[in-house]
# Entry
Amino acid sequence: MKKKLKAFSVIELVLSAALFSIFSVSITLAVLQGSSAIQAGIRSEIARQFAMEGIEATRAVRAQSFDALQNTASSGIEFVDGKWELAGEQDEKDGYVRRISVQSAERDSEGNVVASGGTEDLDLKLIVVAVTKDNYSVDFSTYVSRREIVLIEP
# Structure
């Protein structure tokens, strides 16, 4: 009694290799996309934290002296001799570039803060902190007053 040996045909081998390749590539792409998304989330969080540090440092400058907040389109901030100071046109950390803008705020005839078209309020400044890295950017803004910190949505 002779037994027939069953073997894979060439077509079956090619099909199984193709299916394995498709499956392997799909899994690899899924892992890489997940890793890319995680890295993007980390970069985003670092940029937000760097921007918030700029907001808090600018509030510290205001607490030291409101008059130190001179209008500027772009400034950096640095910690010198135990206090924060506006300095230069920007500051950088690990490739993240932070620019701080200080602008006079304006009020309409009823005393409401307006983006433009009002009267300059000498006791109120709009602080905008922008952080960029590669193709990602984040902006935060707040108002600070000579008398107190004011949170107003522009």
In short: The chain has a mean pLDDT of 86.
